[in-house]
Structure formats: C-alpha cells, structure tokens
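User: quick one, fold this
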Amino acid sequence: MKTKLFVSKLNQITKTFLSMTPAQREVVHQSIQALNAKIPTDELIQPLFDALSQCPHCHSPQFKKWGKAGAIQRYRCNTCYKTFNNKTKTPLARLYKCHLWADYTRCMQLKLTLREAAILINELKKARSLSYYP
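Assistant:
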C-alpha cells in the first residue's frame, strides 16, 4: 500500500474511531482480536518511517540501506554518516522486548497494575508458545 494512501486511510479510521462510544470501541477491539492476526511492531512503525523518510539526527532526506541488525533494516545517512533504524529516536528505541508493548498498552488501557499486567503478559506468552504445537 502506498504511504500517502495508507496515511489518509489511517486518518479516516482514527476520526471514525474517535467518534465512537467506549462500548463501540470495545466491539471494534474484539473484532480485531478475533482476526487473530498478530501484527509485529516493526510492521506498524515502518509505514510511519517511510512517510517521514529522513535521517532522525540531521533530518537529511538522503540515506541508504546499511545492512540489518537481526530482522531490523539499518540505514546510513549520506550527510552526517550516522546509522539508524526505523525505531531510532522513538519510545521503542533500545527496547529488547518491543513486541510485548502492544500487550502492555492494552493493559494500561484496562488500568491494570504493573504486577497484574506482568502476570497477564506472561500468561499470554505461554498461551502463544503452546498454541503453535499440537
């Protein structure tokens, strides 16, 4: 999906979502969860990075791919020669378990304590790991 088209559709969805009642939002949330499609955090961040497409250090639009760190694409700026990835200078930068933050944000919305959230996330991790095996 093209970035501009994606951003415009995302804005439409956001406006519609904000006009809903909390009960309607919960129905939408349950419907999305029913799809059982776990979207990786990187796939959520990449379209935003593509829309900005500039170095986070010097804001130059000229950069090139510079290998990978694990599964994450790295880039190198042609102006300041610094390397970065799509999470640099974001709240998810330098986090080891950023794939769990979607679950933690849901726990924050439910106003769970940190201990309750940790227990719930641990149970979700166990359930996901067991669900792949017959």
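User: anything notable?
Assistant: The chain has five helices and three strands.
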